[in-house]
Amino acid sequence: MADEKKEEKKQPPKFSEPMVDGFKLKVKIKGSLKDAATLLRSVSLLEVAPEKDVVNAVYVENRDIHKKPYVFLVMRFREDEVEFIYSVPPEISPTRRRLDMIRYLMNILSLLGDCYEIDGKIVYQLIESSLKEMDSYASLDFKRLYTEYDHMKKKLDDSIAKAGIYEKRADQISKENYELKNRLDELEIQVRKMRGLSEKVLVSKVQEWILDHNGIINISDFAKTFHVPDSRVEGALNKLVRDGYLELVQ
To answer: What is the pLDDT of residue 77?
Structure first.
């Protein structure tokens, strides 16, 4: 009997669950929980659910792919206490999230000013605690940013220094290229001049030079005057001797 293959169930991808945190604030009710519920309903993003001794208000900022609340806030209003329970996603700093929640709490208590009386000392302690956390959070954040800035500044300074070296080198190469171009132009002119005299014309010029200089020729002077190599002048002289037009005198 063949063994039956068991199909492995595919496990859904796992996602990091947000951490849950919270705090409580002692208060004293001036009106009623019903009045508090009415005021809370004026905030369109809140889902308000009154119970016997508590008014629940929920704010879901976003949900995960399974439609479960991911970034959320649950507020519970009692006659003598306000409780805040909120999620802290892995990608958000717990200190930053707590500061946002305290700010939100202050806005909600401002809305419920006619329903609750809050001890100023308690508010002061909460604000003082949040300021200390803010200072710690800002200090760490500033250090991190300054470190990144310092690294980037060093890289920028190095790049600027290298750019300066490359710029100087580029100027030097440009100058050398200009000088080489001028030298090549001069050599090209000289070559053209040397190529400009045909063998027949060169022989004729050598004859004219000898006649004008009482039968004497200085090869170097002639070559400089007509921009031809000494070897060509010597070749022209040899041709004149071979053809019998000149005779060498020792």
So the answer is: 94
